[in-house]
């Protein structure tokens, strides 16, 4: 998700003054809470004690399935079992599904919300990822994040999905399959469905990890039927109860319907009355409807039948809603509530769901609802629309926007539904409910959406939010063509989105070209657009090396916010992100200490505000990790960033993602973990290729050149360098023929080009490594001068140190010393450590020589001491990854804990294959391989690839392979 595309709860004051129905923007309820509560039982609920006891005895199994046609008591039994689990230390996350949930975004939001009701920490990371993409990769990342949260929860957790047959979308079913496949030992999945479960559970069946109950298991036994009928009718002889149960074939709903009919005829069910009932055949939904119509509905009072028919038009209802649906001049809510309670007590197929405030929510049995809907649909179209019109107005007044839109459309008021979405779109946006907004818009007729410029702008924003960049570009093109001349505010919003799209695509020149228009907003531009504009402009100024201007626009925005109400805090358009840019402007100048203070303050405040500021927290953490790495606090940088990296890739612009992954690679490299260091670079390379970001790809290749040269792998380094140089040449050609040839903006300040720098820096490293020192010296001078002109002083210090290394090898002691001193003075002023340590393998030795030749002033002498203290670990520590003692204590138990698939992954890991290549070899997705790697590291007690390979080598895994277990090699050279 781009950083300019969201806002926080703190800006709810932007809401319109008089929303329909008087509902406040802040009271919107995008989720139907009653779907997340285990249905309540009542005194007439049939207790299936034997069935519940059987399920409780098998509670350790992974998966539970209750599958039968409607009316066999699946929901009732599943709810009873869930309630019985609570005293046994189990937590339960419940979700009642309906046809509106057959959308990956909607379903996933409900699933995560149901788990969050148990413990918000379980789904915190998954909720972040869920916001940022519903593509296959995004959904799998979200599922894995949820699984990790469940693992950390420790307690046993049951996720119960009722009415699973409503889910048919292949993306949802694939996500469910992942949940089944990746489920940890403390997760138990329970499904109730009218049809077969569309999941592969053969592996679970083979390991006896499922309990599958079908229609035969859910049929009532003779004893259960007798007990039920006695509870409903009083004294019933066993023979009559048995005949009724046989007649209904143990169908709970059929037996319940018979009891209703008999109770209506007389208080005690005589043998004669039962014999008359036995003449009926009530074994399926069709005969149920006919019998129910004749024996129950026709005998209700007209007011009761009218209420139930109107209520059937809604998936759930309460007394105040039913009162509104009756549309009486004098509402009688007390009478309606009394009627609902009596119908519930009479067991008239009305189920209480949960209690919200002063209201109890109910739903009709699916068979009864279908029967009543047929009656409702026989009404005139005008009468039906009137009921839906009352429903949407009531739901809106209560803050239930989704149901309000649904009923407005049913009422034939598509324009009103669109107006509702328009009016509340900003509130959903500010609450981070972009998926809800998109789902609501998708319900509208396409022509209705096309007729609304406001909705089209929100959809373009939503496309940018979800990184659907090509679709967003097409939407913005169409909007620009259709905007009327007097729509200045809308045109400016489109302009800001256009600039944001260019930034996300890493098209700096395109974004910079829009700067003059961005600096001239119309008076009617709204706060969110202006705040997003401020952050876009800050980014542009930083690309031009105009760091003071980048900071000034943020300081001005903060001053305006202080005088204009609550500031916009949270994400893309928020002040916290703006403060991150202030810190980044200092970091780009090399003022790391100043940047660190700002990042820490932002991170602390963002975490205090919770989910609404999680995007700012992730960006601040990534930028802070860069500072920590520069200060040689590698473990701290890793701890801060590794758990956020999946989210970071989806919330931040490419520049921030680039910085974060370089930190992770550098920290692993400094610790001697070579495979892990290259794995992060390969991941960065994959992002660059998949997203079409040449700079990201180029920086990855340049860093690979540095690392390969450090290992003495000159041929591999040369191959990377040739790819990098070709990429740079293509980019230069494109600039000359496309975006513009100039590296010089109108201000005269040099425009820094990250890809251009990466190619030149890698070329210099290669020239030094291969002994072409004179050419290296010339290129270093030119590169340092260019970086100074661009204001990238943090890059100048290591370039000066490299120049000193070249001078030393050319036997030029005076220039070598001068360049060392300049690098030290600049490095100390900017707070650099790792930049100088990573400049060249011999850099620290050269610094020591200069310090010994002549006394340094006390400040620089202390700085040199810090550099020496930060030197890489000794060879033995590097070789063992800093974990030699742990490795020597290793036992073969770790190998035995690995599954066959995990052993396959380890074997390929030892061949130095990337995650993507391992996935291709084994026919898995990259996310699945990452999940296996996480499990492998945990079982072996290691922290990364290098340690895993070393641990397996110490355990003589290769010897076990030779003795006949599995194929593979642990020799990276194999």
From TrEMBL:
Keywords: DNA-binding, Transcription, Transcription regulation. Residues 7-16 have a biased composition (Polar residues). This is LuxR family maltose regulon positive regulatory protein. The lineage of its organism: Bacteria, Pseudomonadati, Pseudomonadota, Betaproteobacteria, Burkholderiales. InterPro entries: P-loop_NTPase, Sig_transdc_resp-reg_C-effctor, TPR-like_helical_dom_sf, TPR_MalT, Tscrpt_reg_LuxR_C, WalR-like, WH-like_DNA-bd_sf, WHD_MalT. PROSITE patterns: HTH_LUXR_2 (PS50043). It comes from Paraburkholderia unamae. PANTHER family: NITRATE_NITRITE RESPONSE REGULATOR PROTEIN NARP (PTHR43214:SF41), TWO-COMPONENT RESPONSE REGULATOR (PTHR43214). Residues 891-956 form the HTH luxR-type domain. SMART domains: HTH_LUXR (SM00421). Residues 1-24 are annotated as: Disordered.
